[in-house]
Every structure is written in C-alpha cells, then in structure tokens.
Amino acid sequence: MSGPLTLPDPLVRWRLLLGEAAESCIACPAGAASAADEALEWLYGRDPERLARGERQQSQDRTGSPDGASVLSTPDWINAIHELFPQEVIERLERDAVERFGIDDVVTNLEVLERIEPSETLLRAVLHTKHLMNPDVLTAARRLVAEVVRRIMEKLVTEVRQAFGGSRDRRRPSRIAAAANFDFKRTVAANLKHWDPERRKLYIKRPAFISRVKRHAERWDIILLIDQSGSMVDSVIHSAVMAACLWQLPGMRTSLIAFDTEVVDLTADVSDPVELLMKVQLGGGTNIAGAVAYAQSLVVNPQRTVVVLVSDFYEGGHDTELVRRVQALVSAGATVLGLAALDSAANPSYDRETAARLVRVGAHVGAMTPGQLAAWLAEKIAQ
C-alpha cells in the first residue's frame, strides 16, 4: 500500500472523480492516487449507468483487467480504503458497497467483519445476510451487532428515562431545581426587573421550575407489533432497542411481537436486543390482521394497554379484518398507535389509505423517532 492519500492537484482529483473513462485524457499518477483510483473503480465500476454508457465494469469476480492491473478482493478493498481515505469517506464507501451494490461478502467474510467499522448500515446488512453466514462469521457479526446496539441504546435509554421521569405540569411550579424542569417563560417574566439595559443582560435572581406528575403505581402493558418486511429494517432495529429500554422501567410490562405472514412472540428476549435482532427473519409477506389478533389475546386490562403497531400498512391479508380488530381494541379501551416508521430519521413510506381507515376507527397513526415515541407513551400513561 502506498500510504494515505493526500489532496492531489485539481487535475488528478478530476481523474479520480471521472474514473477509468478519463484515463486516455488524464493519466493517474502512481502511488496513493493510483491505489485510490483502483479502490474507487472496484466499487463504482459496477454502476449500471456506466455500463449503459459503454464504460467497462470492473466486477468483483474479474481475474484480471485488459491492462494487467491487479484486481482487489473484498478484504483487500476494505484494507485499502481504511489506509487511503478519511473516516467520513470510508463510511460512505462501505455504505454504498452494502446498500447500493449489494456486495454481500462485505458482511459475510470473516476477515472483513473483523476489520470493518460498526455502523447502523452494517447492522442492517447483517440482518439481511445472517442466514448466509457460517458459525465463525456469525460470531463476528454478533459482536458487530452488539456494538451498534450499545451505541443506539446509550442514547435512547437517556431519552426514555427523561420521558418517563414524570410528565411536566405547567400549571404547578416546583421548588426542586432540576434542569429538565426549567420553566423558561416563567423565569423571564419573574426576573424582568433585573434587566440591565446598559449591559443588555437579564440577571436571573429566581429561576422557575415546573412540577412533574408522579406515575401511577398500577402496571401498564406495552405491546409492540413489529413488521419484519425488508423495508422496515430500520424500524425493527430501533423497536428492539426501544423494547429493551421500556422493559427496564418499573410498572411496565413490555411484549414484542414480530410478524410477516406468521406471528413470532419474542418477548422472552426483550431484555437482550442483540439476541432479539439475531432471531428476526426479514422479508416475506405481511399479515397485519393476524398480528393484531395476537395482540388482542394478550390484553388483560384494556384501559392500561398501549398497542404500538410498527408497519408500512401494506396488508397482505384481509384489510377489512385488520380495521375490524383495531376498532375492537379501541372500543375496549386500549390505545392503538400505528407507526409508519420508528427510526432516527422518521421518514415514512406507507399505505396511506389503510392508515386513514385505522385513524377513522380510533387509532393514532404517524412516524416517530424512538425519543418521540417515549415522550408520547409517557404522556398517554400520565393521563
């Protein structure tokens, strides 16, 4: 390897940007620039748009190129980009390899898995390809899953605990000085007399805080129904971590049910999101009504039950049966929340017609980040 790539002159940068198609006009110099060109061509030479324009593809299974240049294996490529490029470029290249070009051995090759940086992109890829892995590779993949889950949970557990610390009651001031309960508007109003016009500063002599409502001691049941279809993989990941966070809260009983055409109760693993995710089987059809029917069988006290249905609402079974069962849950007193997305971006793609029918029978439907879901649940439970 030729060492890290320093910023080349503008002409060479254009050569790297344009790829092999520009070789006849702009020669790529030897050294790090040539190695970077080879690594980029290994990946982006697969682009079907380039093939349509008549440019040659340097595919993964080539044994040599017309000019006799060496061809990288996947482990070689991973090692090369980690030596040549900064971290943000590495993450983009690895993401494109998995998501754009479907290079499965990025996550099914033991050597690669031991080298690659854990990320949510890689976690999604592992969930899609874990059935292709031998035991040694699966062990390495599990370590990757555990690290990504740890990072997600580290952030999410704080959001959940803050949300369930008690809902804020703006009608009642509090003498307990806590940053989470700081009342900005009331503080400003109470301290306006301390405004210094010369220094243009407001001096706070008496900060104001909001009270929080104590939680009821009676247990609440949270039933998470998770659609396992391939398009829902981000929501599956965050639902698993969310379930583990809720499971840790006192006075909460959390159930997690995964479904496609079949229904699988994963509640026994809800405290271990890594184990839970390794049992998820992505893909297949969708029978949402069947999952809701299973949720109905778990309801003991409807007035203290929240059913969270995470799905794109593309029903492969009977949509009329789905609407009827959701209506029955709502009529019995349960709260039903349909989430078209549960992830850090909360960008939904879903069957709006089916979602609208569920809203008409009393369900709440939207898209949320995990933190927003925690706050929503906390407010519902406080009512």
UniProtKB/TrEMBL annotation:
InterPro entries: LolB, Uncharacterised_CoxE, VWF_A, vWFA_dom_sf. Gene3D superfamilies: von Willebrand factor, type A domain. Residues 219-378 form the VWFA domain. It comes from the Bacteria. Residues 52-71 are annotated as: Disordered. Transmembrane segments: none annotated. It holds the Pfam family VWA_CoxE. PANTHER family: OUTER MEMBRANE LOLAB LIPOPROTEIN INSERTION APPARATUS, OUTER-MEMBRANE LIPOPROTEIN LOLB. This is VWA domain-containing protein. It comes from Massilia violaceinigra.
